[in-house]
C-alpha cells in the first residue's frame, strides 16, 4: 500500500507560478514511476507529467515548456513546478504512482492516487 499526499495548491494569477508537492509512503519509492494528472470541472482527468524511476520525464503538450516534474528519492517526494500559468490550468491536480515502473500517460497504469489539490488560476 502506497499513500500519496499532495500539497501546494492555491489561487494564483495568470502568468504566475506554483509548485505542487506529493509525499509518498513506501520503502521502494525510488523504483516507482510518479505521475501528475489533473481534472477540470466537467472534463475528464488528463495526464500532465510523469517521471520514471530512471528519472526520465514526459509531459503533456499543453504544459511542455511551462511545467517541470522532479523527484527526491531521499525524501520520497515528487514536485510539479508550474510556471506561466493560464486559466485553463485550473483543475484539481492528482499525484499517482506506478510501483512496477511501467507507467505511461494513461491513468489506468497507476496503482495509487492522492486526494488531489485544487489549483485555480485567475485571469
- If you average the pLDDT, what whole number results? 96
- N-to-C series of helices and strands: EEEEEEEEEEE
Low-confidence stretches: none
Give the tally of β-strands: 11
Concise description?
The chain is an all-beta fold and 123 residues long. The chain contains no helices and eleven strands.
What distinguishing features does this structure have?
11 strands; 4-stranded antiparallel sheet
Task: List the topology elements.
Layout: E1 4-7, E2 10-13, E3 18-24, E4 33-39, E5 46-51, E6 57-59, E7 67-72, E8 77-82, E9 91-98, E10 112-113, E11 117-122
Parallel strand pairs: 2-11
Antiparallel strand pairs: 1-3, 3-8, 4-5, 4-9, 5-6, 7-8, 9-10, 9-11
Structure, described:
With 123 residues, the chain is mainly β. The protein is built from no helices and eleven strands. It has strands spanning 4-7, 10-13, 18-24, 33-39, 46-51, 57-59, 67-72, 77-82, 91-98, 112-113, 117-122.
